[in-house]
Amino acid sequence: MTLDDAVVARHTVKAFEPGQTLPQDKIETLLNVLQNSPSSVNSQPWHFVVAATAQGREAIAKSTTGAFVYNEPKVLNASHVIALCIRSDIDDKHLQNILAKEQKDGRFVAEGAQAGQDKSRRSYVDMHRYEQRDLPQWMEKQVYLALGGLLLGAAMLGIDATPMEGFDQRVLDLSLGLREKGLTSVVLVSLGVRSDKDFNADLPKSRLPRDEIFTFI
């Protein structure tokens, strides 16, 4: 499948076929996509909870009741569900951990490169914490970069996917024990095989025309 084919064929799946499990090698590819997602100053302020079992999906489905009950079957009938989360803070321990991994991976060749990277990253974190006072929103933006890559990667692999913001964040955080880990949920993605009841599959994709969304200068 070409990239052009993938972006046209991709759609938000409205119903999954229960009991259909995706091949593990394809799941591993998508996990690789998430692990290697880009983030501002390589801050990597995320954590991904992968529900690959019925028990795991049920834990996530607790957050899709009440006003969000329409999303419950999309969680329970999926093959895998991924909760994309952000850290509650980018603390010194996290910054040191990233820097140590970059050093181990050989990213600092030039003299002073490690210190420069550390100073630059901390300046961005401090700017969003103290000046713009939008650190959680900044971290969320990085998660949505990862989400875009995940959805495109799934489309390239022929995997059906459903991104969801329709869930009770507090319930999910408590159900998965995220708060005691210094995390909070942002968005869910269900992965699986669409069923014949997926009405969205046969509808044409609709996007605004290029002359309305592009300006060439």
Description:
The protein has 217 residues and is an alpha+beta fold. It has a single domain, classed as NADH Oxidase, CATH 3.40.109.10. It has nine helices and four strands; from the N terminus they run ααβααβαααβαβα. The chain has helices at residues 3-9, 24-35, 54-61, 72-76, 92-104, 113-131, 135-156, 169-175, 210-213; strands spanning 46-51, 80-87, 160-164, 183-192. Strands 1-2-4-3 form a four-stranded antiparallel beta sheet, sandwiched between helices. It is globular and about 60 Å long. The protein starts with a helix and ends with a helix. GO terms for molecular function: oxidoreductase activity.
Query: Biggest sheet, open or closed, and with what strands and sense?
Result: 4 strands, antiparallel
Overall form:
globular
Which strand order does the major sheet show? 1-2-4-3
Question: Could you give the count of β-strands?
Answer: 4
Percentage of residues in DSSP E strands: 5-15%
Roughly how many Å is the radius of gyration? Answer: 19 Å
How far is it from the N-terminal to the C-terminal residue, by CA?
32 Å
Name the CATH architecture.
3-Layer(aba) Sandwich
Order of helices and strands: HHEHHEHHHEHEH
CATH overall fold name: NADH Oxidase
* Tally of DSSP helical segments: 9
Helix content: 40-55%
CATH superfamily: NADH Oxidase
User: Given this structure, which CATH class is correct?
Assistant: Alpha Beta
The average pLDDT score comes to 98
Regions with little confidence, pLDDT below 50 for 5+ residues: none
Broad structural category: alpha+beta
Query: In total, how many domains does the architecture comprise?
Result: 1
InterPro entries: Nitroreductase, Nitroreductase-like
Family: Belongs to the nitroreductase family.
Protein name: Nitroreductase / dihydropteridine reductase
Pfam families: Nitroreductase
